[in-house]
TrEMBL record:
Region (Disordered): 60-80
Cited PANTHER family: ALPHA-GALACTOSIDASE C-RELATED (PTHR43053:SF3), GLYCOSIDASE FAMILY 31 (PTHR43053)
Substrates-to-products reaction catalysed: Hydrolysis of terminal, non-reducing alpha-D-galactose residues in alpha-D-galactosides, including galactose oligosaccharides, galactomannans and galactolipids
An individual GO BP term: carbohydrate catabolic process
EC number(s) reported in the record: 3.2.1.22
UniProt protein name: Alpha-galactosidase
Domain Glycosyl hydrolase family 36 C-terminal: 634-724
Listed GO MF terms: alpha-galactosidase activity
Species per Swiss-Prot/TrEMBL record: Nonomuraea glycinis
Length: 729
C-alpha cells in the first residue's frame, strides 16, 4: 500500500514512480510540532526511505532574523520564529500566533489502491485542532493533500477567526537553479504559457474574483532550468478549486523553494464557532523524471482516472448556434441550422443564449428560465424534437448563477444576490450574481434545471458564468459572511452533483466567459470546458498549448468558426481551422448558411476524419512536438493502442528557419508503422510520407518525417492530419 510507517513520527508515501517522505519534527525545548517534508523524488525502497528520513539535514544559513527550515514544513503556521509566507493564519481573540502539538496519526484504507494518512495537531492552549490529510494511490504519481481546522466542541469559547487556510505547502528539493512554468491571460487570451527563472522572494498567482479566473490558473511547475518536453525533473502543484484561490511560491534567499496553495485571498475572514470545522480543497503534487510532456501526461491520466465523471466516453461533435443567430433564436432558424449541421455529421446541437424569458439582448431575463413567450408560445419541445428527428442530441445554454435586474426573479427576490448593506450593487454585463451559498437559491436552481432536463429530454447543458463577484456579502450571516467566498463555489458543486445524480445521462460543459472557470474542481462535475471565447485558430494554438500542460484533450471544447474570425478579424483556411479544433473536442460554431457548398463539403469530410481518430485524440497519450504553436512549425501527437495521430501546423508560408523534419514520440522503436491517412499518393519524394508506406518507430522518432505542410515556401496556414497504424512488434 502507498503509506508505509518508518517510525512513530515518520512515513513514506509511495506512488508508482516517486516517494514522498514526511516526519513530524518536535522541538524538545517547547514541544511544538512541525510536520516537515524530508524527501520528494524518485521512488525509494522502504529501507532507502528510512535512511533518507534518518539522515541529518545539511544546515542552511541561519541567523537571528530567519528560520529557513520553515519552507520545508507541510503547513507553516503564523507563529513562533517564522517570518515567511504562512499557510495557516488564525486569531484567538487578540492572539494570532499558533502553537501546535502532535496529537497522533491514523491510516485509512480507501479502496481502489488508495490510502490516506491523517496527522492531527492541537493548539497548546486554545480549543483548536488541525488535521493534515495525505492521500496516495497505486495507479498515479499525483499525491493529494488537504487541511481541516476545527474549533473543538468540548470547550466553550469565543469564535476562532481563520484568515488563511492553505491546503498544503510543498517543498521542492534543492537545485542549482529554479525555473517556474505557469499560465497567465485575459478574456480571449487565456492559458498563455510563461516559463521563466524563479526570482528570489515570493511569487503569487491568485484570483480574487470568486472564480478560477482568466488571469491565472491554479497550478505551477518547477524545474532546475534545463528540463524539456521529454527530459528533466519537474515538480508540479495544482489546486482543485473553482473559486478564489492563492498559490504562493517562495524562493528563499538561503536557497530552497516552497509552494503553498489554498482557497481564498487576502482580506477575507472565516469564523469557526465551537463545533465547527473548515476543510480546504485538494492541493495536488506530482513529481516527474521525464520533462514537461511526461508531467502533462501524468496529470491527464490522473484526471481521467480520478477526476472526470465520464472519462471513457467519446465526446460528440457539436454545433452551437451563437455565432449564427446571437439572441435571435427562433424555431425555424434553429431547425434550418440543424438540417445543415446534421448533413455535416454533427451529433449534438446546442441552442445558445436567447431562448428564454424576454431575452432579446443581454440587458434582461437572466433568472426567468422559461421559453421566450413571443418566439416560442408553444414551448421548446417541438423545435427540440425536430432536431432529434435529424439524428442529433440536443442541449441548451444556461447561466444559473446570474440574474438580470430587469427580470421577474430579481423583482421578486432582490435579496438573493451577493450584496453588502449600505453599498451599491455593481453590474457587469448588465447582471448580478446570485448567492449560491444559500440553500433556498440552490434548491430553486436545481428545480428549474431538473424540470428542463425532464420535460425536454435534454442531453447537454452549456453552464456559463459571465462575471466575477462584486460586493460579495451575505448580510444574514453577520460577521461570518465572508464564508460566501467558499460556500458559493461549494453550492455550485452541490447543484451540479445533485443534477447529475438525478440525470446520469446529462452532460455538462463549464464556461465562464471562455476560460474563467477551468480547474480540477469543476472538472470533477463537468465533462468538458470552454477554454476561450477566442476561436481564432492561430490564437487558439497558444491557448490550447497552455491548456494541455495540465488538462487532457477530452475536456477541451474547440470550435471551427467563421473566417474572418469574429474576435480578431483574421482570415485563414477552413482546413487549418478544423485541424486546430481537432486537437480537442471538435465543435462547429460558424454561421453555416454563409458557408459555400465547397466549404460545407470539405467540412463534412474533415468531420468524418475527426470521428475516425477522435478516440485517439481524446483518450491517447499526448505529445507536444517541434516549435511554438501558432508562431512557427509545430505539431501535437496522440498515441493510443496501435494508432498514432499527428496534427501538423505551419502558420508561416515563407518560413526559412525552424525544424524541417517532424520527429514523432512515444512509439515502439522496433515496430513498423503504416501510413493510413495523410500521406502522399504514389511514390512521393524520398523521405516524404506515402500512403501505405511503412516506417520503423526508431526512424520516425530519430530522423522524423517531412510533412507537406512544412515545406519552406507556400501559403500561410498549412496543416496536415497524419495517421499511422502499428502493424508489427
Amino acid at each position: 500500500m502507498p503509506v508505509t510507517p518508518l517510525d512513530e513520527h515518520c512515513w513514506a508515501i509511495d506512488t508508482p514512480a516517486s516517494t514522498y517522505v514526511i516526519r513530524v519534527e518536535v522541538d524538545p525545548a517547547t514541544g511544538e510540532a512541525a510536520p516537515a517534508q524530508k524527501y520528494w523524488g524518485p521512488r525509494l525502497s522502504t529501507e532507502a526511505a528510512r535512511q533518507v528520513a534518518a539522515a541529518r539535514e545539511p544546515r542552511r544559513h541561519v541567523t537571528s532574523f530567519s528560520t529557513p527550515s520553515e519552507a520545508e514544513e507541510l503547513l507553516p503556521v503564523d507563529g513562533g520564529t517564522r517570518w515567511g509566507t504562512p499557510s495557516l493564519q488564525v486569531s484567538f481573540g487578540h492572539a494570532r500566533s499558533v502553537e501546535l502539538r502532535f496529537a497522533g496519526a491514523s491510516e485509512h484504507e480507501e479502496g481502489g489502491g488508495a490510502q490516506r494518512l491523517d496527522l492531527t495537531l492541537a493548539d497548546a492552549h486554545h480549543p483548536f485542532e488541525v488535521v493534515l490529510s495525505i492521500r496516495a494511490r497505486e495507479d498515479t504519481d499525483v499525491i493529494e493533500r488537504w487541511t481541516t481546522v476545527r474549533h473543538r466542541p468540548d470547550q466553550a469559547g469565543e469564535p476562532i477567526t481563520v484568515t488563511r487556510l492553505d491546503s498544503a505547502n510543498w517543498f521542492v528539493p534543492d537545485q542549482a537553479g529554479y525555473r517556474y512554468s505557469g499560465v497567465f491571460g485575459a478574456w480571449a487570451e487565456e492559458f498563455q504559457l510563461q516559463r521563466e527563472p524563479l526570482p528570489v522572494g515570493e511569487l503569487v498567482f491568485t484570483s480574487r474574483q470568486g472564480i478560477t479566473s482568466h488571469q491565472a490558473n491554479p497550478w505551477i511547475m518547477i524545474d532546475a532550468g534545463a528540463a524539456g518536453e521529454e527530459h528533466g525533473e519537474v515538480w508540479g502543484v495544482a489546486l482543485a478549486w473553482s473559486g478564489s484561490w492563492r498559490l504562493t511560491t517562495t524562493h528563499r534567499p538561503e536557497g530552497g523553494v516552497s509552494v503553498s496553495a489554498g482557497f481564498g485571498h487576502e482580506g477575507v475572514r472565516w469564523t469557526l464557532e465551537p463545533g465547527q470545522e473548515l476543510t480546504g480543497p485538494p492541493a495536488l503534487g506530482l513529481y516527474s523524471t521525464a520533462g514537461f510532456g511526461a508531467a502533462s501526461r501524468a496529470w491527464h491520466e490522473y484526471a481521467r482516472r480520478h477526476v472526470l465523471p465520464t472519462p471513457g466516453e467519446e465526446r460528440p461533435v457539436l454545433y452551437n448556434s451563437w455565432e449564427a443567430t446571437a439572441f435571435a433564436v427562433t424555431e425555424s432558424g434553429q431547425l434550418e441550422l440543424a438540417k445543415t449541421a446534421a448533413s455535416l455529421g454533427v451529433e449534438l446541437f446546442v441552442i445558445d443564449d436567447g431562448w428564454f424569458g424576454a431575452r432579446d439582448d443581454d440587458t434582461t431575463s437572466l433568472g426567468d428560465w422559461w421559453p421566450h413567450r413571443e418566439r416560442f408560445p408553444a414551448g421548446l419541445r417541438g423545435m427540440l424534437d425536430g432536431i432529434r428527428e435529424l439524428g442529433m442530441r440536443v442541449g441548451l445554454w444556461v447561466e444559473p448563477e446570474m440574474v438580470s435586474p430587469d427580470s421577474d426573479l430579481y423583482r421578486a427576490h432582490p435579496d438573493w444576490i451577493l450584496h453588502l448593506e449600505h453599498r451599491r450593487r455593481d453590474q457587469k454585463r448588465n447582471q448580478l450574481v446570485l448567492n449560491f451559498a444559500r440553500r433556498d437559491i440552490r434548491d430553486w436552481a436545481l428545480d428549474w434545471l431538473d424540470r428542463l432536463v425532464t420535460e425536454l429530454d435534454l442531453d447537454y447543458f452549456k453552464w456559463d458564468m459571465n462575471r466575477p463577484f462584486t460586493q460579495a456579502g451575505w448580510p444574514e450571516q453577520g460577521a461570518a459572511q465572508d464564508r460566501v467566498w467558499i460556500e458559493h463555489t461549494r453550492g455550485v458543486y452541490d447543484v451540479l452533483d445533485r443534477l447529475r445524480e438525478r440525470h446520469p445521462g446529462l452532460r455538462i460543459e463549464s464556461c465562464s466567459g471562455g476560460g474563467g472557470r477551468v480547474d480540477l474542481g469543476i472538472l470533477r462535475r463537468t465533462d468538458e470546458v470552454w477554454p476561450s471565447d477566442n476561436t481564432d485558430a492561430k490564437d487558439r494554438q497558444q491557448i490550447q498549448h497552455g491548456f494541455s500542460q495540465l488538462y487532457p484533450a477530452s475536456t477541451m471544447s474547440a470550435w471551427v468558426t467563421d473566417s474572418p474570425n469574429v474576435t480578431t478579424g483574421r482570415a485563414m483556411p477552413l482546413r487549418y481551422r478544423f485541424h486546430v479544433a481537432m486537437a480537442g473536442v471538435l465543435g462547429i460554431g460558424g454561421d453555416l448558411p454563409e458557408w459555400s457548398p465547397q466549404e460545407l463539403a470539405e467540412a463534412a469530410e474533415l468531420i468524418a476524419q475527426y470521428k475516425s481518430v477522435r478516440r485517439v485524440i481524446q483518450h491517447g497519450a499526448q505529445f507536444r512536438l517541434a516549435g511554438t504553436p501558432g508562431q512557427e512549425r509545430s505539431a501535437v501527437q496522440y498515441v493510443l493502442d496501435d494508432l498514432v495521430v499527428a496534427l501538423v501546423y505551419n502558420p508561416l508560408g515563407n518560413a526559412k528557419r525552424g525544424p524541417r523534419r517532424l520527429r514523432l514520440a512515444g512509439l515502439d522503436p522496433e515496430a513498423l508503422y503504416e501510413v493510413v491517412l495523410g500521406g502522399d499518393p504514389g511514390e512521393g519524394e524520398r523521405g516524404r510520407l506515402v500512403h501505405g508506406s511503412r516506417w520503423y518507430g526508431s526512424a520516425l522518432m530519430a530522423a522524423g518525417i517531412r510533412p507537406a505542410a512544412w515545406e519552406p515556401i507556400g501559403a500561410d496556414y498549412r496543416s496536415d492530419l497524419v495517421v499511422l497504424k502499428q502493424v508489427s512488434h
